[in-house]
Design goal:
Strand 2 and strand 3 form a beta hairpin. The chain has one domain: Trefoil (Acidic Fibroblast Growth Factor, subunit A) (Trefoil), CATH 2.80.10. The chain contains no helices and 13 strands. It is globular, with a radius of gyration of 14 Å. By secondary structure, it is mainly β. The strands form five sheets. The chain has a five-stranded antiparallel β-sheet, with no helix packed on it. InterPro entries: Ricin_B-like_lectin_EULS3-like, Ricin_B-like_lectins.
Length: about 150
């Protein structure tokens, strides 16, 4: 997994990346040298698992902590949990990508319930916003890009 290209995760405000802060995932000012903002989209332990729409499942793993984003049942803050691609991955650690819009942004969907997506809690797209899951919506805090660290 460490050989993977580091990625950044951001919603419509490209100056803010998802990062681990304490035991939470928050939006923070983008800084390519801050490794807590570096993520891997890991497919290796998932096989050919897909969501109901045929999108392939993956885990979002923070490079610094080695923890994966874990979705909660329904709406709420994402959690972080240890991750190993050498064992079966719990379904709560798996996500899929929705269809990309013309601007390249897409929903990051909960594998077990694609009606829930990654979301800046309370509709916020500002520094310090906690990242969680909420019902699917086409808003700035719910549409994301996952790209190499130095890309827009």
């Amino acid at each position: 997994m460490e050989k993977e290209q580091p990625l950044r995760i951001f919603c419509r405000n490209s100056t803010l990346n998802a990062a681990v802060r304490g035991h939470k995932v928050k939006l923070v000012l983008a800084n390519p040298s801050d490794k807590s903002q570096h993520w891997i989209r890991d497919y290796s332990a998932v096989g050919h698992l897909t969501d109901d729409n045929g999108s392939r499942a993956f885990a979002l793993v923070n490079i610094t902590t080695g923890q994966a984003m874990v979705n909660v049942a329904g709406a709420g803050e994402v959690r972080l949990a240890p991750y190993s691609s050498h064992v079966a991955v719990e379904l709560s650690k798996l996500w899929t990508m929705g269809e990309k819009g013309r601007d390249g942004f897409a929903e990051v969907k909960v594998l077990q319930d694609v009606d829930y997506t990654l979301n800046g809690i309370n509709g916020n797209v500002k520094e310090g916003t906690v990242v969680g899951t909420y019902t699917s919506e086409q808003t700035d805090n719910a549409l994301w890009k996952i790209v190499p660290v130095n890309e827009e």
